[in-house]
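If I may wish for something, please sit down with the protein I am sending here and say whether tokens and residues agree:
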Amino acid sequence: MKKFPFNECKWVVLLLLFAPLSQVFCTPSDSSLTFDIDITRFRMNDSTALAEVHIAVPRERLKFVDEGTQWRASFVSEVVITKADSPLIRHRWQAYHTARTIDDVRPGQMLFTQAQFQVPVGSYNLFARVEDENNQAFTSKTLPLVIQSFPPTELCLSDLQLASLIEKDSTVSLFYKNRYKVIPNPAALYGAGMPMLYTYSEIYNLSFPSDSGYAVAYRVLDSNGREAKVLPRRRRRIIGRSLVEVNAFNTATLPAGTYSLEGRVRDENTAQEAINVRKFFVYREPDPAAQADAPDEGLNALLSQYRSKSLAELDHEFTTVAYIALEEESKIFLSLSNDEAKREFMARFWNKRDRSPETLRNEFREDYLARVVYADKHFTGLREGWKTDLGRVLLIYGFPSEIDRVPSSGESRAHQTWKYFEIEGGVEFIFVDIKGWGNYELVHSTARNELQDPNWQRWLFVQ
């Protein structure tokens, strides 16, 4: 499929920002520069994939300079892809935006940019850096990049790219892909300010020419792997060997939380199926009017529990929820200075995650804190158990369906494989006691957005 040749572009202009996102992105105006980043992989050939890097920067965190008739902000993005600490790809590009007045720059507005890179199959690290050209403020992130081969003959599906907007557009621009304008959503965050979730993907190796069709089905799974939403199954004609798949649905009926979107394609001629999964988040601000009209007994029960909590206990409890707290929630909690405000915050934090609001007990909170206690009891060594790799996976994904434990031998280190059968169709986490101190470190996982290392077995061998 033909893609816009971004590697030929040296200057990139931002095309779009979304003013109504203030209910989703709540970023303080005095905070430092930050950005969201995401990577989507598409097929190029048997040995190479197209890695598309999407970046979103909060508009209000950039410095706008008065140019007389307008205000102008500019930032430079840099991406470096390395393999075994050796840089293979380095690319810098500029993006800018203007405002009629400085009052037009408000919290919640996001600016988007992206670039594409042809990357051979293998495991890499991707370093991304964003710098504000007007005040030299900068920030950076490093994340793993695993490029797996797309089968040359079997039906397969690209990554699901989450988007803020997809619409048909013949204008070749930064966000143009196969007759569509696809505005990314690197944060994968949806809510009242952005209820529609759009996805773009590509299907490869359909049986063309053929009189048969193909079917596409989507479903949304909650953090426990349960179905939260099932979209209508659609059947289409096979008009080419590789086709574009675009979809959209409204997240308004989904409570706040973490979800996985599963996309499945079936070729009716060959009966082959391909599946891919993408994690996303839904965040909603509490509704003060609704709270005033209907007193929340569950919230009141939590407030009662927190009355006896000391400031130190409140601070410690919040540090243990770092894996599930949203960035905005962390900023709000850290800005609170008195005990009473923190007690109310913690009560509301757990209350909006309560999956059984009809009961006074908050089972989600009880289960999570019980796992913190378990992690501290069984995994604590050089650091608290909940801070270890084992503890992190336990708190995010829960107790595994099955654990394979292999003790150390003369040539092999001790390691564990945690298996979750109900998540993303089945995932594994592999931990190795690399230093021999009983501190098991995550070296590989098949779960989305987790460390993936196809050569993880090298960690087993004692040098």
Observations:
- The chain is about 15% helix and 40% strand.
- The CA atoms of residues 10 and 207 lie 39 Å apart.
